Amino acid sequence: MALCTVGSVVINVVDLEREQAFWSDVLGVDPARTIPGFFVWLRPQQPGGVSVALQKVQELKVGRNRVHLDTGVDDLDAAQARIEELGGSLVESLDMGGFTWRVMADPEGNEFCIAVADH
User: Fold this and answer.
1) SS3 of residue 30 by DSSP
2) Which residue from 65, 75, 76, 99 has the fewest beta carbons nearer than 10 Å?
3) In a 3-state reduction of DSSP, which class is residue 117?
4) Would you say domain 8-116 falls under CATH 2.60.40.3600?
């Protein structure tokens, strides 16, 4: 039996409203609960799944993320283009052992990866 279960992955952000709009569009989910001006929990993509939450902080991100989201997409180029339209950016493209992925950043520089989802 697990001691703990993961409920949310929390991303620290300075501009809560901008980041909520970005992550809601990227993940295709709406907020489930908010503490205005401080915290937003987005709905899980699947019932019982882990959600992404946004927590307002005062300081900008510095350095490389120690924890990040890995996401699955149908088309790397289309996903990258849409993420960039939403204010995100490409950090780097990588290929290792025939596996290709892209490290992206949200508008505040929080990194996450996109790769073609397993079908």
Assistant:
1) coil
2) 99
3) coil
4) no
